[in-house]
Amino acid sequence: MGNEYQQRREQLMAKIGDGTAIFCSAPSAVMHNDVEYSYRQDSDFFYLTGFNEPQAVAVLAPHHKEHKFVLFVQPKDRDAEIWSGYRCGVEAAKQIYGADEAYPITELDEKLPQYLEKASRIYYHFGRKRAFNEKIITHWQKLMRTYPKRGTGPVAIEDTSTVLHSLRLIKSESELELMRKAADVAVEAHLAAMRFAQPGRYEYEVQAEIEHIFRLRGGMGPAYPSIVASGINACVLHYIENNRQMQDRELLLIDAGCAYGYYNSDITRTFPVGGKFTSEQKVLYEIVLEAQKKAIAQVKPGNPYNLIHDVAVRTLTEGLVEIGLLTGEIDKLIEEEKYKPFYMHRTGHWLGLDVHDVGVYQHGEDKPQILQPGQVLTVEPGLYIVPDTKPAEGQPEIDPRWIGIGIRIEDDVLVTPTGNEILTERVPKEIGDLEH
Ligand code: GLY
Ligand code: MN
Ligand code: MN
């Protein structure tokens, strides 16, 4: 793996030429008062270094003669380490993480200029750490003040995402290994949840089953707050209270994924708590399932990313017309977005080090991203008949028998050279397999 971080840095350095890229570690997050969450490194920083401590800065300066990769880190400090855990320190930053030079973070202001003064531009992402953003601007301003005398220096700051995120979008074999692990652990958790859920149990009990398995199987924990939404709660897209008692004849929507070795899975299944779909639930479920399968069938190299959403929307719209929730001509309903009261989100996103992973979906208005082997994305259509929904203009009143049903089905899909591989396929989604 060590070599792979180096390869990534080299790939990035080839792109930035005589620029200098600066990456800042993620801040330590405070839970409340001075109690901290466990630390999670910034994904760009981790992708390029594998280094997972706060208070660190990584610099890539391909044009520098000796120091192309520089780390600024927290120095060893026995007393601080007793309280907050082991630090790698300056020396090991070179030995373990392969930095050509390393300094204590306290020397950043003094040492940084030597890596910027000959750079043609700075690559930096203005993040949430305001003080650090200010620091970069201050260094830049200083260099620009002396630019007339030297005739060299960074004349612009460019966001690192423009050069880095196209690399992160294509997953390597070792990344895929971790993503398969993240998927497998979440598959197991969903299977356990399906066995466990029954009328009378509480949503949080199901959540506990799921998250127990995440940790038990070596995962870092949930990739995002687990959604365990029974009955009408399934109509709230990001429902995370998870405190309701589940009833017979209701659906349970579980959207839960696991973080494993910094990579994520993201799975949704919807199934009847009591083992039998009502006829309305079944009809809507079949529409969503068909939309999901047809959308997944479009995941193959060469297809535009947008096609996945377009196919899902078309299938959902056709289904809604068939059952009388929409009326009219399909193309017109799609063009006028009449499906939106029942399907208000997109059909998926890139998946990787971030759950909503980086990478562009569209290169300008008429140039969609084209699917390529090594990309991983979610496919997650749904239908939500939210209470109090006003039908779109010219559309029929909503028959009360549909109201309160929420369904989503989500899988994680890898684009392969010949088509796709569904990493989360082992969680059942056929009606026959969900009923008992
Ligand atoms: N659970 C987050 C998402 O599906 O995007
Ligand atoms: Mn998702
Ligand atoms: Mn999800």
Estimate nothing, just give the exact number of structural domains. 2
The set of bound ligands, ions and cofactors reads: glycine, manganese (II) ion
**How is the largest sheet built, in terms of strand order?**
6-5-4-1-7-8
Uncertain segments: none
Name of the CATH superfamily of the largest domain? Creatinase/methionine aminopeptidase superfamily
CATH secondary-structure class of the largest domain: Alpha Beta
Using the 3D structure, state the CATH architecture of the largest domain: Alpha-Beta Complex
Cα(first) to Cα(last) distance is 45 Å
User: Considering DSSP H and I runs of 4 or more, what fraction of the residues is helical?
Assistant: 25-40%
Quaternary status of these chains? single chain
Proportion of beta-strand residues: 15-25%
Mean pLDDT: 97
Tell me, briefly, the overall form.
globular
Structural class by sheet pairing and helices: alpha+beta
Question: Can you tell me about this structure?
Answer:
The chain is an alpha+beta fold and 436 residues long. It has 2 domains: 2-166, Creatinase/prolidase N-terminal domain (Creatine Amidinohydrolase, Chain A, domain 1, 3-Layer(aba) Sandwich), CATH 3.40.350; 170-434, Alpha-Beta Complex (Creatine Amidinohydrolase), CATH 3.90.230. It is 36% helix and 16% strand. The protein contains 15 helices and 19 strands. The protein has helices spanning 2-16, 43-49, 78-84, 89-95, 108-111, 113-116, 130-145, 147-150, 161-169, 173-196, 203-216, 279-297, 306-322, 330-335, 431-434; strands spanning 20-24, 30-32, 35-36, 57-60, 69-73, 101-104, 122-124, 157-158, 221-222, 227-230, 251-256, 258-260, 263-264, 267-272, 376-379, 382-384, 406-408, 411-415, 420-422. The strands form 6 sheets. Strands 6-5-4-1-7-8 form a 6-stranded mixed sheet, with helices on both faces. A 3-stranded antiparallel sheet has the order 9-12-13. Strands 10-11-14 form a 3-stranded antiparallel sheet, with helices on one face. Strand 2 (30-32) and strand 3 (35-36) form a beta hairpin. It is globular, with a radius of gyration of 25 Å. The protein starts with a helix and ends with a helix. One manganese (II) ion is lined by residues 255, 266, 268, 410.
